[in-house]
Amino acid sequence: MQDLAVLIAIEDPSAADIVELLEEHLQDMNAESPPESVHALDVERLRAAHITFVAARDESGVLLGIGALAELDASHGELKSMRTSRVARGQGVASAVLSLLLTIARERGYARVSLETGSQEYFATAHRLYVRHGFTECGPFGDYVPDPNSRFFTLDLAG
Q1: CB–CB of 75/109 below 8 Å?
Q2: What is the pTM of this model?
Q3: What is the spatial distance between Cα 113 and Cα 156, in angstroms, rounded to a whole number?
Q4: By CB distance 3.0 to 4.6 Å, which of 30, 88, 135, 158 could disulfide with 111?
Q5: What is the pLDDT of residues 82-124, one digit of tens each?
Q6: Buried (b) or exposed (e) across 97-109, using 16+ Cβ within 10 A?
Q7: β-strand pairing of 76-84 with 112-118
Q8: Residue 1: inside a domain, yes or no?
Q9: Is residue 51 within 8 Å of 68, Cβ to Cβ?
Q10: Would you say residue 150 lies in a domain?
Q11: Residues of the domain holding 137
């Protein structure tokens, strides 16, 4: 499929269309993983001061996807809540959101960006996206613990 014209900007995650996409995201995460392995954030947690939340929209303002960058410390960021709307999948939205979040991380001087995602087949497309952008598998980071339902990835920005 051809890539869409995507406009990505920092937004408030409490906008109605974003809340709807986040609720869909949380429902899918809970359907795919046991409760103790679901690390997706709700709207209020995404509004925290240490999180930068972005939304991708088409030229008419239709929501295409979302993503967030949480600051773990002054040199380490974590990707959170990466989600593309069903109608926009396969059209470059996730890659565009990820690229912008990595640009923000570099501008902040982070040495690395990491993420946690599910290990089930449902998450295979996400795994491929992260590997295409240079992420490699790693062990748990931050407050995460080893979990057979999780895969962890990191990208060294310093090198």
Answers
A1: yes
A2: 0.91
A3: 7
A4: 158
A5: 999 888 888 899 999 999 999 999 999 999 999 999 998 989 9
A6: bbebbbebbeeee
A7: parallel
A8: no
A9: yes
A10: yes
A11: 7-156
Separation of alpha carbons 130 and 124, rounded Å: 10
Give me the sign of the Cα torsion angle 122, 151, 29, 40.
negative
Residue 116 maps to which CATH number?
A: 3.40.630.30
Closest by CA to 97, choosing from 50, 63, 124, is 63
Residue 98 domain flag: yes
53-85 pLDDT, tens per residue? 999 999 999 999 999 999 999 999 999 999 998
CB 129 within 8 A of CB 95: yes
Q: Cite the beta strand spans of 58-126 per DSSP E.
A: 63-73, 76-84, 112-118
Longest Cα–Cα distance of the chain, Å, equals 43
> Does 158 or 16 have the greater pLDDT score?
16
Report d(CA 25, CA 81) in Å as an integer: 8
Measured in degrees and rounded to the nearest 5, phi and psi for residue 92 equal 90, 5
Task: Provide the mean pLDDT of the chain.
Answer: 92
Rounded mean pLDDT, 122-139: 96
In a domain, 2, yes or no: no
* Pair 56, 4: CB distance under 8 Å: no
